[in-house]
């Protein structure tokens, strides 16, 4: 659904509260702010962002977007939910620069950031660098 106000508000799938009620502690939430989006900055419309609700493996359960053109940005999340996609599918999304659509990719990438920079991958990188 979309509420056409200023800024727009759009939702697809489960809300965080609905997901927690249904899946409990397995729920993960990732966010991306429009303050970090170059198109939003250029337009002077940085209020808002995206919140994506997933399970612990990255299956997309719901998404909410608050900001300019939220109604235009939410369909990709509706499709991802209906097709049972994981956030990894959206990290591969090719998005023109600079567009508001980059916020979807930023949110998907935010899910994997803590995993990529945890101690185990860091040790692996150090080991690989030490190889001749």
Automatic annotation (TrEMBL):
InterPro entries per UniProt: Class-I_Pyr_Nuc-Dis_Oxidored, FAD/NAD-linked_Rdtase_dimer_sf, Pyr_nucl-diS_OxRdtase_dimer
All residue ranges annotated as the Pyridine nucleotide-disulphide oxidoreductase dimerisation domain in the record: 2-106
Descriptive protein name: Pyridine nucleotide-disulfide oxidoreductase, dimerization domain protein
Coiled coil (UniProt feature): none
GO molecular function, one term: dihydrolipoyl dehydrogenase (NADH) activity
One Pfam family here: Pyr_redox_dim
Cofactor(s) essential for the protein: FAD
């Amino acid at each position: 659904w979309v509420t056409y106000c200023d800024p727009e508000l759009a939702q697809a799938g489960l809300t965080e509260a609905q997901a927690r009620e249904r899946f409990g502690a397995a729920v993960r939430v990732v966010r991306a702010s429009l303050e970090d989006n170059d198109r939003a900055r250029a337009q002077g419309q940085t209020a808002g962002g995206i919140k994506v609700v997933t399970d612990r493996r990255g299956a997309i359960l719901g998404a909410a977007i608050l900001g300019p053109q939220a109604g235009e940005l939410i369909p990709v999340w509706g499709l991802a939910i209906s097709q049972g996609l994981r956030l990894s599918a959206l990290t591969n999304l090719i998005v023109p620069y600079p567009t508001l659509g980059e916020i979807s990719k930023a949110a998907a990438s935010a899910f994997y950031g803590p995993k990529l920079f945890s101690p185990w991958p860091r040790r692996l990188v150090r080991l690989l660098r030490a190889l001749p």
